[in-house]
Amino acid sequence: MTVVAVVAYVLLSIGALCTLVRLVIGPSLADRVVATDLLLVLVICAVGVNAVHVGRSDYLDVMVVVGVVGFLGTVTVARFIEKRGA
Amino acid sequence: MVLDVVAGALTLVGAALALVAGVGMVRFPDVFARMHAATKPATLGLLLIVIGALLRVDDPGSTVQLLLVMFVQFLTAPVGAHMVGRAAYRAGGLLAPDTVLDELATALADGGPQGPVPPQAT
Fold first, then answer.
1. Which of A33, A58, A71, B54 is deepest in the core (most CB within 10 A)?
2. Closest residue in B to A74 (Cα–Cα)
3. Is B50 a member of any domain?
4. Does any domain span residue B27?
5. What is the per-residue pLDDT across A3-37, written as a single tens digit (0 to 9) for each?
6. Beta carbons of A64 and B68 less than 8 Å apart
7. Chain A residues lying within 8 Å of B16, measured CB to CB
8. How many CA atoms lie within 13 A of A40 on its CB side?
9. Residue B121 — very low, low, confident or very high, per pLDDT cuts 50/70/90?
10. pLDDT tens figures, B35-78
11. B36 CB contacts (<8 Å, ≥6 apart)?
């Protein structure tokens, strides 16, 4: 199970690095919102991989909280874009 | 033992979806295509990883928590993507130059969100 967890962490990390590239170079604010949203989803996925790895439920609260807070942030910036333009 | 193998396989597939989303974020041409790539791990990838965790963690409280994560994510991911997409389209100028069809533009030109304006009866 450790091998599986390490491979999954590596895959998630490469995806997060690509997302960070888009977050830095993204030409518009909407690109950065999408990238930030995906980054938070990858954080939730990493916590889930940790739960699969150790077989305990230590950090599952983090999954719930990050999911809800990430949605609130996405909606807030989307409304900002709608008022001010990207 | 069998459940562990299944959980590991599901976790690997979910993490691979995250990698695919990262590649799509870098290579796709405009914000709408990138949104299409970004919403795959948000629902399917997270669903696979949560099912893997459900198979590994045997504790009723954490089962409820994992199901709550999936429920919240399936409710909020489409709503958030819809709001970002609508805001990005209305901001204008974000479509890739090689877009071949923009049906929303023609529909808006035909008379706004309600569609073509019906002729007035006299």
1. A33
2. B80
3. yes
4. yes
5. 999 999 999 999 999 999 999 997 888 899 999 99
6. yes
7. 11
8. 21
9. low
10. 999 988 889 999 999 999 999 988 888 899 999 999 999 999 99
11. B24, B28
